[in-house]
């Protein structure tokens, strides 16, 4: 196995990691603002008369960005293998930042009607295409600078960026909401996190312009060994196509559903099924992510010592076994049938508010329970109005919810921490960007990105006349099923060798 004739110094390697990670973090931030603001965006870009359809449509738009990621992987993966890693993922950064900024400028449904969701969908698709080219480039770039025996450790810093991007998006949203106020944030303040993307992207472009090309790519370019047709070599070659399919169905599909269940579906479940307050929901997710993120680096480092396969497979197995027990405990924290109301503490207030350019009387009732939780129910006296309820958890319940989400984040770090090194080492340098990007983005973009939408749809479909509340855990069958299939295929076909590819 050959290496670059000019190995990257320790100082240079940390600059590579920092520059790559900052840009990738910003791209994930851009991508995840949409999901973090799903409930508000559903009210901005869809008719308010049917909130269930609106939230499903918003989650479908969120998923659409994932579905096109494999196409971005093909387009930008090919460019990365032809012209180099650096300029390709510099291009994806500009596309992502521009489309995110533009979403913040799209008028609401009440202003331009159906053109609003149409414009958002187009911009969301551009986001997906850009992200399809970003991750493979960043992971490949870092791995090709890293010493062979330490790729798991160094690429794990790239792996933290997806979770940190979600964490930063939540932090910016909460800070903006606190600064402008709740009503202003729901009206126009939600645009600020999108518009802020422009500033973040400019900073990242400045940093990335100072980066050099990957030493391994520079070497094969100097030797005239660059692939003339990366797509053909990656997918028309039977041996390489077999590796692509093994990577997809034996690793990234299960990894994708575990990632999105443990973070995004957890947030959707807490807010829409458990009906926990908007701010408290995001605080729960943010704290769990902050506590769990260092484990990406730990499991990346550990995979250098004992191999990638068993760590990833164990993470999927634990998710399969514990998802339903965990979500049952989460649901129990807000199950009113398990609570005792303090009847003499109930308060009811009426207030006139401006809703959709009309003065409407909103009745708010606040009910307190013996376990320290509080339930707020708002009902406006307008046609087709549905009551909106939100739980405020007690301190004990808050930390229990954090703990349950944190356990899921541990599963995420096990399956995600080693996977960049695993994918990089599976394919040769000349077609690595193309070959690794496609299975990653199908696994994460299609199987993983569809998790919130499919899981929420399964929950809604479980509602019947006999059971109007539905089965709150019906959505879990999707990630459990995909993870189970991946676990079986991965255990049969994946190798646990620490280094596999020939450079």
Topology of this structure?
Elements: H1 10-36, H2 38-45, H3 51-67, H4 69-83, H5 85-103, H6 109-112, H7 115-143, H8 151-180, H9 182-189, H10 191-195, H11 197-208, H12 215-222, H13 230-235, H14 238-273, H15 278-292, H16 294-306, H17 309-332, E1 347-355, E2 358-368, E3 374-380, E4 388-392, H18 395-416, H19 419-426, H20 432-448, H21 451-461, H22 477-493
Structure explained in plain terms:
The chain is α+β, with helices and mostly antiparallel strands and about 500 residues long. A four-stranded antiparallel β-sheet has the order 1-2-3-4, with no helix packed on it. The model is unreliable at about 1-5 and about 500-503 (pLDDT under 50). Helix content is about 70%, strand content about 5%. It folds into two domains: about 10-335 and about 395-495, MFS general substrate transporter like domains (Growth Hormone, Chain: A); about 340-390. It has 22 helices and four strands. The chain starts with 9 loop residues before the first helix and ends in a 10-residue tail after the last helix.
């Amino acid at each position: 196995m050959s290496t670059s004739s000019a190995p990257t110094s320790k100082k240079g390697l940390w600059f590579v990691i920092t520059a790559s990670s900052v840009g990738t973090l910003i791209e994930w931030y851009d991508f995840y603002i949409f999901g973090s603001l799903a409930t508000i965006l559903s009210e901005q870009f869809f008719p308010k008369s049917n909130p269930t359809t609106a939230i499903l449509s918003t989650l479908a738009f969120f998923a659409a960005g994932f579905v096109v990621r494999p196409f971005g992987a093909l387009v930008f993966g090919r460019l990365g293998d032809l012209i180099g890693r650096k300029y390709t993922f510099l291009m994806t950064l500009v596309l992502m930042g521009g489309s995110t900024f533009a979403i913040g400028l799209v008028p609401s449904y009440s202003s331009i009607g159906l053109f609003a969701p149409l414009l958002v969908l187009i911009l969301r698709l551009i986001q997906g295409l850009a992200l399809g080219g970003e991750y493979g480039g960043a992971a490949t770039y870092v791995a090709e600078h890293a010493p062979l025996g330490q790729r798991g450790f160094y690429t794990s810093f790239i792996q933290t960026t997806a979770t940190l991007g979600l964490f930063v998006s939540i932090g910016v949203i909460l800070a903006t909401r606190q600064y402008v106020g709740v009503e202003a944030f729901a009206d126009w303040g939600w645009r600020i996190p999108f518009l802020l993307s422009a500033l973040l992207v400019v900073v990242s472009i400045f940093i990335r312009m100072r980066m050099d090309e990957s030493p391994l790519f520079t070497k094969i370019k100097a030797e005239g060994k660059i692939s003339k047709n990366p797509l053909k070599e990656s997918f028309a070659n039977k041996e390489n196509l077999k590796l692509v399919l093994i990577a997809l169905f034996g690793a990234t599909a299960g990894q994708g559903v575990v990632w999105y269940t443990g973070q995004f579906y957890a947030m959707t479940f807490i807010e829409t099924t458990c009906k926990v307050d908007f701010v408290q929901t995001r605080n729960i997710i943010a704290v769990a992510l902050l506590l769990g993120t260092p484990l990406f680096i730990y499991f990346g480092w550990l995979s250098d010592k004992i191999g990638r396969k068993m760590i990833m497979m164990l993470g999927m197995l634990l998710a399969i076994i514990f998802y339903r027990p965990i979500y049952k405990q989460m649901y129990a924290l807000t199950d009113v049938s398990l609570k005792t109301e303090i009847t003499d503490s109930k308060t009811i207030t009426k207030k006139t508010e401006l809703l959709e350019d009309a003065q409407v009387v909103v009745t708010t009732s606040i009910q307190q329970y013996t376990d320290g939780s509080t339930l707020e129910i708002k009902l406006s006296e307008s046609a087709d109005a549905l009551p909106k309820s939100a739980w405020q958890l007690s301190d004990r319940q808050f930390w229990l919810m954090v703990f349950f989400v944190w356990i899921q984040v541990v599963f995420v770090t096990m399956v995600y921490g080693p996977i960049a090194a695993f994918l990089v080492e599976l394919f040769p340098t000349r077609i690595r960007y193309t070959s690794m990007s496609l299975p990653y983005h199908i696994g994460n973009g299609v199987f993983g990105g569809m998790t919130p939408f499919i899981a929420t749809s399964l929950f809604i479909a479980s509602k019947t006349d006999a059971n109007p509340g539905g089965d709150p855990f019906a959505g879990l069958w999707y990630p459990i099923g995909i993870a189970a299939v991946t676990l079986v295929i991965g255990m049969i076909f994946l190798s646990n060798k620490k280094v596999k590819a020939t450079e």
